[in-house]
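new request in #modeling-help
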Amino acid sequence: MKRYRRLLQTNATGMYFILPAILVVVLLLIYPILSSLYFSFTTKHLIRPQVKFIGFENYISILTNPDFYVAFANSIKWTIVSITGQLLVGFTAALALNRIPKLKGLYRTLLIIPWAFPVIVIAISWKWILNGVSGFIPNILVNIGATDELVQFFANPDLVFWTVVAVNIWFGAPLFMVNVLSALQTIPAEQYEAAQIDGASSFQSFWHITLRHVRVVIGLLLVLRTIWIFNNFELVYLLTGGGPADLTMTLPIFAYNTGWGLKQLGVASAITVLLLIFLLCVCFLYFKLLDKWEKEDEM
Amino acid sequence: MGMKRRWLGNSVSYIYLTILAAVATFPLLWIISSSFKSPGEMVGSPLSFFPKEPTLLYYDRVLNVLNFDVNIVNSIIVALSATFISIVISALAAYGIVRFFPRVGKVMTRVLITTYLFPPILLAIPYSILITKVQLANSLVGLVITYLSFSIPYAVWLMIGFFRTVPLEIEEAARVDGANKLMVFYRIALPVVAPGIVAVAVYTFINAWNEFLFSLILINSTGKMPVSVALYSLTGAEILDWGEMMAASVLVILPSVIFFLIIQNKIAGGLTQGSVK
């Protein structure tokens, strides 16, 4: 015991191990974010050199801009719908994979492929498949008689949002599937047998055993994916650029357009700071819930 | 009764998984097929899966006219450098946390999740200003530096899980023999977790290879672009050449998919298997 303590006590040398990582976090995360916070109170411009401190003016101009609320509402809708879809598809796929006796590995490998796609290739391949002239899906829909004309998935105002959501579900469901599957595989079979002997219905076993075991994993995935989807700039930007008519305009694209389109980096910083504050609140609530579940699991 | 229900449940599962597998793999198969189609077939027969007259025309144009090979080399340089630096820093940090600061493990996990919270677009603004200030705009070095911001927290997080599995006893034995801490780390702990670290390295490489936003903002000359942004620049042409985009996409995605499938068992479950708890 003494020797163990000696090994643990020497924290000073332990610091050398984590020092480089701390430096990276400070220089590449904390410092840039603080400087962004500072820029958000200034007239920082992409090209013009002079910078003036203007207090909360950027924030006021954003919060009185109706376009901001459009983007905010779109972001929330896009996050909730996408994450629900990813969870449903990923969870059901994991349940199916967990019960089949054969070919588990093959199906898992095939289903995981979208995860490896670079975002630019996701955008290009789906734009090609859904292309309104020679795309596979619009043409096959006409071919089987489902539609009379070639469907314009990215130009039709009723469809564009759902098209982007569908692509996001396609991309994100495998991550849910794989992680839920590995949680499912840790459930001891005896628990189900015991429940069966006690006369539990299969729904009861599912509710009390399966869901209870995987909920912390699902909760954590929901935190991570909410953040990722809410923050995601590339996928929507590359698929639609926020259009048509701002129907798929999300906050990150709004910030990008303000910063690099209008060249107002100060205003763009303020938008991203608001984005971060909102996410911090959401995460705080999630962590509260996760803590509660983890405590219950330990009991 | 039980048998029959199980059989039914399995059949439904197989049908469901087959449909999902078809949807999951279709885009990859379709862009590969399209990249070999002749220009006429590309627009003329949008439903045929196998090219009637397979051609390497687009690959030739992408590599020899658009000089995409330069971008591929750029991406390899950037991704390899970012991976190497990340792995060294992260392995040290993860080991340090597990061995010397075990109590803060849970706090660290939360801190790492918090860094994941920072919107890339939030970082993009200060990066574009700071990287320009230190004269690294439009350079691969600048790109590598920004990649560390997302690769290191994630790699540390995954590796904490691996180092927890190293028994203290074997390190203790080496300490008795007079090895110092760095040697214990390098000679004893590192070899035990090496397979996991290789997987994290490959995953870091894929993420760097796939990165888009920072390259879009920091790189503006074609010769310096990594593949993701070079591919994006094709989508801005006045007359879109889908064939070229397909061939370039295949060149970009193949390394990703192949590497990913090799390490899938190590990484995919690892997110929740222990690294988090």
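bot summary: The mean pLDDT of chain A is 90.
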